[in-house]
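Many introductory courses stop at the sequence. We go one step further.
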Amino acid sequence: MTAFFQYYLGLPYGGAWFVATIVGTLLIALPLMLAVAMAIYADRKIWAAMALRRGPNVVGPFGLLQSFADGLKVFLQETIIPSAANRGLFLLAPIITFTVALIVWAVVPFGPGMVLANINIGLLYVLGASSIGVYGVIISGWSSNSKYPFYSALRAAAQMVSYEVSIGFVLISVVLWAGTFNLSGIIEAQRGHILGFVNAFGVNPLLFPMAVVFFISSLAETARAPFDLTEAESELVAGYQTEYSSMSFALFWLGEYTNVILMCALNAILFWGGWLPPVEIAFLYWVPGWMWFFIKIGVFFFVFSWVKATVPRYRYDQLMRLGWKIFLPLSLIWVFLVSGYLMLTRYGSSL
């Protein structure tokens, strides 16, 4: 895109790079906000179908404009700040949550060459940037100066740390097999992975358990059911969001669903071939790569909603036990298994 602006607008390299970056950012951020609105609508429709209800069906055809009506409603509401709250941090928390959810998309490849920043350490960037998101929850809980939000913030801190550890070990297994931290490189490493035919790490018997662990950890990392202990309405009213209203509340929702879509994208990228078609058949390549990527994101989002609608919430001790006593040792053992297998097969001749 930089070369395009250099050639057609006659800009110097620095100016062309700046304009290309701004345009690329808008091409990601604006459709993403539209996708979040549609994701909220789809979520509600899926939950309704699971409970034999109709869901949103009044605003617009088939209720498609319901999310936009809700957005307009919260935009017109008054922003109420509790008198005992820390005003600066109270307003900063939702901004952190929303901003961090957006910046991670800079390294997500939507197709061959369709990425804003194709950096070699893309996976490390995703892990580092997404882990900052918990600060928005912690700051909102503390600055509200209320017991329920504060308790929610403590839960969020423990939950995020617990599952990021196991996610880190899962990613090590993927990186060992792909041989790169670059997300586009990881997708290309899955081309013809099984018998030169299947484009996915997820069907590899050694990596499939890690795909399952990563998916469940994604639910915990985004605080989705059955791991939504940070905003358990039966215990904490609305958790860290209890004291928020108007657009500050909406920013939390936007950040939450942006993170959910991101985790669906990472599941598709790391284990299920990203923009590649499921199998190596020529006519499947007639479908653009970005479309395959969006289809896979949609499938994972449906499973996320399916789990939320059907699986009961865990107790907090069960959540911690799953993270520390099952996923952590399992993912650590799998790092040894994968690295040992690769040393014997891929690098055996050089030992």
